[in-house]
Write the structure tokens for this entry.
Amino acid sequence: MARDKTQLLRLVFIDRQIREGMQSGQLANCSTMAAEYEVSSKSIMRDIDYLRYQRDAPIAYDSVRRGYYYSEENYRMPAISINESDLFSICIARQALRQHENTPLYRKLVSVFKKIEQALPDKVTVDPGWVDDRMSVIPDRRAVIDHQVWDNLTGSLKSNRRLRIVYLKPTADLPTDREVDPYHMVSFQGDWYLAAFCHQRGKVLIFAVSRIKKAELLDVLFKIPDDFNPDLYLRNCFGIFPGEKEYDVKIFFEARHAPYVREREWHASQVIEENFDGSLILSLQVGHLYEIKRWILSWGSGVKVLSPLELASDVLRELRESVSLYN
């Protein structure tokens, strides 16, 4: 029977707990192992049954000391097969977790990786310390998220319970109270966003989780509409905020910018038209102009909006206002 990697790690954990309990005289049982590994007692019991009946592990139960032990002292559970490449991947993934330091998710993921390291078989002799010394991940600058807000948001997503939130828009002086039905959460450039049906506005909106100052779970259940698909909802975004119409955008980049444009996929719909002098035209379809306007302005000179006229006028107005500050 094939077992997934998550369960294999639990099996190694159970094996070590049983052996340590035999050495200390305080035998491990389902409750203690479940509490330490943060799973249910039923999961531990199923794993023990698997070890007994599928792997022929001689696990016995002492009703007096209320714990498990091996009736054959020489029994050894087969180790997890892991090579240097696997361990390297684990170390890099641990570095990447820094992207989520502003959420309780980070603490839980770090805990999981510690369990992975503890579950590695003794035959693994590769020192993972060099990864920390020679490779690093610089996370995006993140906004602060209230941990209680995070817990209630994830609780709502899990149980489909409505939320009452206090939300502060960046352009508002005072926060507003809203009731929302959370459909989906997405991480973008280091920050988390919530796609939720807002009963105040009567439609699905994107809320920056860092701007939710308070979230309260309500005793009202909701159902996600069958036609809501997060991939489709966010498909035309250039950034995170969707729009209600589609814009055909064309942008000219001088040759000095062209290599940086070519080397990355900026949008799923993008098409690049090469010019003989090394310049290029980037075409794409987006549902919102605000975020792509900010992106165009970040390139400085050597970039020109060809269409739509609305976007070109907006960029021109921003540039004139910027120049006026220096005058």
